[in-house]
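ok here's the first one, seq then struct tokens
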Amino acid sequence: MHEIYEAIKRSAIRIREAIEFDDTGYSENINSTGDTQLKLDIKSDLIIEEEFAKVASIKEIVSEEKADKTPLHVNGIYGVGYDPLDGSSLIDVNLSVGSIFGIYEGGYAGANLKAAVYVVYGPRVELVIAEVDVKMYRLNKNGEFVFIQTITLKEKGKLNAPGSTQMCWEPKHKALIDAIFADGYRLRYSGGMVPDLHQILLKGGGLFSYPATSDVPKGKLRMIFEVFPFAFVYEKAGGEAIDGKHRVLDLTPSHPHDTTPCFFGSTTEIKRVRKCYE
């Protein structure tokens, strides 16, 4: 596992440099889910594939930017699902973005996750690794990731990050979000999954939601690349992640790009979600 973490660190340093200095415009390519790719999406994906190709324990990879799996090492044991540059559409307005990684053994069900990693590219570059617990590292001026802290969620938080198109919310979901704000929770939503979930983790707790809506009834966020890795992080930090009724990590996708509604948060906030959706 250590070799995979080191490959992610090398990738993060290279991607940070690309974000700072490369072309932030759109390419002429369309990815497997119909999104027009930024040139940085393509480059970030290539960087990660190059670094993972050096790691013999990785059997295959599956990227948010590709339609299917890419084989690497026939004797490898791990599959890595990743989003190379989540929230990349925020780069042209200079907001924080990130990379997300799920390390699987035995297929891409949530139950097969062995570790999860994400990187935040903001004013500082921070890397979070969840395995037994959740540890945060920060890139220093020498190009090294130094340990900063172990992250633990409080039982109840103060932040609310409600995603998706509000006009398409179910009435019960709107009532839930309105009630949470009425209880004094503060809005913290940038449109970037990585920085928004990172902020809730570092500020002690709260709720991030991306529900089923009338326009996207199966949710928008992808299980393998986005939802499962962050569900793993939140559980290891003492929180929970559900699809409204069920634990997210009990789900099994039938296709690499399958999506799900999702709610991440402290235990108090997730109890409120369960009550709303029961």
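and now the second one, same deal
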Amino acid sequence: MNEYDYTGDKTKNYFTAYLQKCIRWKRWNYLKKKEKIGRVEKPLEESLVDFSSSIDEMIELRYREEILSKEREGQYPEWNELADQRLTEALMMLREDERHFIYQHVFEERTFREIGCINGIKEDKIKNIYYYAIYKIRKWMGGKS
């Protein structure tokens, strides 16, 4: 005799069938809900990892935007405010005039002709000093000559 066979009281049997159906339904709902939560939780965990790296990217982007807005207003960064420590050290090893010409050409975006007019030096000499300074920076930082 199995559990589905009729064993006596008809009302008791209907109630037992009803309870079995309810238990199956609740169990099925529980398993479906658990499966759904499992599917949703895993992508959320993965997205949290991606989200933390995107926060770093957003901070870096905001920092760059602030620097650009300051440059638009004519406020240029100081040498010690540069992010790359090796680059800052290499720039500090240059002569004062080399740093000055790099600063005018890179940060102030002046042409070699304008730099020459401002400093009273020929354009070709400014170019030579500038490119030799760039060569020295690359050499000190271990890059291509």
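notes on #2: Helices lie at 10-72, 85-92, 96-107, 112-119, 123-141. The mean pLDDT is 77.
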